[in-house]
Write a structure and sequence with these properties.
There is one protein chain. The chain is an alpha+beta fold. It contains three helices and eight strands. The longest helix has 15 residues, at 5-19. The mean pLDDT is 96.
Length: 132
């Protein structure tokens, strides 16, 4: 039993990145699918594929590395809002990640989105994680 599936998702990505793996397979959920799509749209992962086989299904993510230095594109993944301590923000006080170089993923009333998009749409919500 997993008490925090989002933290497990981020940890699997972080560990695969540090180990230099090309792909990682993660159990699927709706929220993990949305986070994966945001990471792909923002250029942090190379590609992804949703497999609906089995009871839960899985997400296969191809990780992205720098061509010259072979360093992972994702430098840090950190969970902000945890099950024991939720972190919420309104649209006017969405924090910037690494002075605008990173992204934060926010759960709003209109679904998951980046902090920049939530600011443009004047939405606040729960800060799920920071990526840079």
């Amino acid at each position: 039993m997993n008490t925090d599936p989002i933290a497990d998702f981020l940890t699997r990505l972080r560990n695969a990145n540090r180990a230099g793996h090309k792909t990682v397979i993660i159990p699927m959920s709706k929220m993990k699918k949305e986070i994966t799509q945001i990471l792909f749209d923002q250029g942090f992962i190379l590609n992804y594929k949703f497999d609906d086989e089995g009871v839960q299904g899985s997400i296969k993510i191809a990780l992205k590395y720098d061509k010259l230095s072979k360093e992972p594109v994702i430098k840090k993944l950190e969970r902000v809002s945890k099950p024991g301590l939720r972190k919420y923000t309104n649209s006017s006080s969405i924090p910037r990640v690494l002075n605008g170089l990173g992204i934060n993923i926010i759960s709003t009333s209109k679904g998951l989105m980046t902090g920049k998009k939530a600011f443009r749409e004047n939405l606040g919500g729960e800060i799920i994680c920071n990526v840079y």
